[in-house]
Design goal:
20 strands; about 290 residues; mainly beta; seven-stranded mixed β-sheet; five-stranded mixed β-sheet; 2 helices; Immunoglobulin-like; single chain; 2 domains
């Protein structure tokens, strides 16, 4: 008898647990990925987050969910927009109303998108439902050093004005697998700016740090004005190993990184290397030592 009671109690717990975790929203995929945890800033590609809705216990008569896009370190992007995936009919599931609401979609600080639906005669979200149903788009993100290396986070948000984002019929919030944070990458950015209160008064090339190094080292340089810049790594014979920078750059203080590879991406051997900065009549070179 005691064993039967224990088994019954465990079944009740299992049923309750399944009911709680059976309703969930998760990030399925992202358009505009640069790598697994980074998104691209090229001025052309929109970043699209696809969200999966799962419901495993019973039909849901209403949904209410909010999502927030924000940057903890000041990245900026084009306007934010929520939408449904065409052809899947979530609007038909909630025939009384289905609305997508936006708050503060300026592309800075934080943007919020809300999805809310309610059924009258239609199905609602059926039991055992598991589909990618909604999406949130931002961008394109402007290229350049202003966004490169900063982050964007997608997280759940309290849905205004009720302060909750439960689905109808469930006392506990729907499970959310976030937050999800991505680093912004501009593949064409080859330098990172150093924050300063004023422009440098002259061209300067500093000694790389660390030195000796393995395998990465950083090279700081200063530009008093916008100009064409070329930063090149040579071997001791004067042969070009890698061109780190070859473009026009605004005036300011910058740092470039060399990862110890050549122009083909192959790791170079230990030894002494030279790096040279050329800019508007300025030319300076220094030695660095790669030790493995």
């Amino acid at each position: 008898m005691k064993n039967c009671i224990i088994i019954l109690f465990n079944l009740i717990l299992l049923f309750c647990f399944t009911t709680v975790v059976g309703q969930s929203i998760s990030l399925e995929s992202v358009d505009g990925l640069y790598a697994a945890d980074s998104i691209i800033a090229d001025g052309n590609t929109a970043i699209v987050f696809y969200l999966r809705l799962s419901n495993s216990s019973s039909a849901t008569e209403g949904i209410s969910n909010g999502f927030r896009i924000f940057s903890a370190d000041g990245a900026e992007w084009n306007t934010t927009a929520g939408d449904t995936l065409s052809g899947l009919g979530i609007k038909d599931m909630f025939d009384q109303y289905f609305t997508i609401n936006h708050w503060s979609i300026t592309g800075s600080d934080a943007d919020t998108v809300g999805f809310v639906g309610s059924k009258l005669f239609s199905t609602g979200l059926p039991a055992d439902f598991n589909e990618i149903m909604i999406k949130i788009s931002i961008g394109p993100i402007s290229p350049g050093v202003g966004n490169h290396g900063k982050t964007i986070t997608l997280d759940s948000s309290f849905f205004q004005p009720s302060g909750t984002w439960n689905w109808t019929g469930y006392a506990t919030p729907v499970q959310w697998d976030g937050p999800h944070t991505f680093t912004i990458v501009d593949p064409f950015v080859d330098v990172i700016p150093i924050e300063t209160s004023s422009l440098p008064s002259s061209y300067v090339l500093e000694q790389n740090y660390p030195n000796p190094f393995n395998p990465n080292t950083q090279i700081k340089f200063y530009l008093p004005r916008r100009t064409d810049v070329k930063l090149v790594v040579y071997n001791i014979l004067g042969q070009v190993i890698k061109i780190l920078i070859d473009r026009e750059i605004d005036g300011g203080s910058f740092v470039a990184d060399w990862d110890g590879t050549d122009k083909n991406g192959e790791t170079v051997p230990s030894g002494i290397y030279l790096y040279m900065l050329k800019a508007e009549g300025f030319q300076k070179s220094k030695k660095m030592l790669l030790l493995k």
